[in-house]
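Q: I'm writing up a methods section and want to include an example of the input and output format. Could you take the sequence below and give the corresponding predicted structure tokens, formatted cleanly so I can copy it straight into the document?
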Amino acid sequence: MTLLDAVLWKVCTLVRHASDNIADMSSRRARFFSDARFFIGVALVVASVAAVWGVVSATRTTVGVAAAAGTLLPGQVIGSGDLQSTEVMLGAASERYLSVSDVPPGSVVTRVIEQGELVPRDALAPEGSAQLTTVVIRSAVEVASGVRAGSTVDVWVDNAVEDDPEPPRVLVSDAVVVSVRTDDAMVRTAAAVIEIVVPRDAVPEVLAAVSAGSELSVIAAAGGGS
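A: Here is the clean output for your methods example:
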């Protein structure tokens, strides 16, 4: 082997070793980044599972909420036996409802709450703040069979007894029925005596119509009875 061949062989050997070292370094670097991506992926999966578990756990947590023991009507003052506690899963929506212990004494119902229905915070008002009262009227026409406690009705007035009568008109709209009973003195006309909840400012007009001898008719409001 000549000196030139020896030199060339040595150079080739050095180049090959350098290439091997570079390849080895690249392989180690690739394995490092591959391992890092693996651990990052595992961490993301664990975080996702933990987040989902937290959400599921929160939604499965039950809270005690007040429910109506019977149908509650507007203007009714809540008594000790009117509410019962029930365990439900509401999640964030639980803030919209009251527990039995949250209901202040003397709270007044502001809308119909059906039996078993959860009691929303906005369905009760402090004692004396609800501008509602009850009146008893006699319907001049037969009341629909679907009209019962909790039904929504309109009260119509017919001023036919006046010298210059007006067409019948709605005297009170969206009144809530407390009770319905047949008037034994007027069975032949199928009339009924009805106790209804009305706004306090509607009372003078109702009493004036009764005093004037006008006929009052109770008609089921849309969706209020049939």
